[in-house]
Specification:
The chain has 153 residues and is mostly helical. The chain has two domains: 48 residues, no CATH class; 88 residues, no CATH class. Helices cover 49% and strands 6% of the residues. It is built from four helices and three strands, in the order αβββααα. Strand 1 and strand 2 form a beta hairpin. It starts with a helix and ends with a helix.
């Protein structure tokens, strides 16, 4: 109660909250930009920007390498598994559904990791197709050579 009275006193003394304000700095360290009647930021977040924000640059700090998809090469699903996921769930493996995104939103760092995982899988499929293509070209050249030899006889 003592802290509440002190907080309210500070707010009134410095006229921090008024109908004119568009930014509120809470004593908890949380910042609200936009509607000053919003008394707290949603969830554990320290910054709330009411109608979104625009910036030229964002840097995401990565605290744990396990959050990223270096292991994606070991866990690549087959194309049949990907096709089944798309057919049954209407989205890629390890990706959230559109409804889930609308309901929950997403963490930028986590989504970056998921997208990187998908890109790594695509490169693996591309490299595999390239190898198969080389093999088929070699086999085709050998077959053409065999046909030419048969035709010469």
């Amino acid at each position: 109660m003592k802290y509440l009275v002190l907080t309210i006193s500070l707010l009134l003394m410095y006229n921090i909250v008024s109908s004119q304000d568009i930014m509120v700095l809470k004593t908890s360290g949380k910042v609200v930009i936009g509607n000053p009647t919003l008394m707290t930021t949603p969830g554990p977040y320290n910054l709330y920007v009411q109608n979104g924000m625009m910036t030229e640059k964002v840097k995401v700090a990565v605290k744990n390498a396990l959050d990223w998809s270096d292991h994606a090469f070991e866990l690549t699903p087959s194309l049949e598994q990907v096709q089944k996921s798309i057919h049954e769930n209407s989205h890629l493996i390890n990706m959230p559904s559109a409804n889930q995104l609308v309901k929950e939103g997403y963490e930028l760092q986590a989504m970056d990791a998921k997208i990187l995982e998908q890109v790594e899988w695509l490169w693996q499929y591309t490299l595999k197709l390239s190898e198969e293509n080389k093999t088929m070209k070699t086999e085709l050249a050998e077959l053409k050579k065999m046909i030419e030899e048969i035709q010469k006889k």
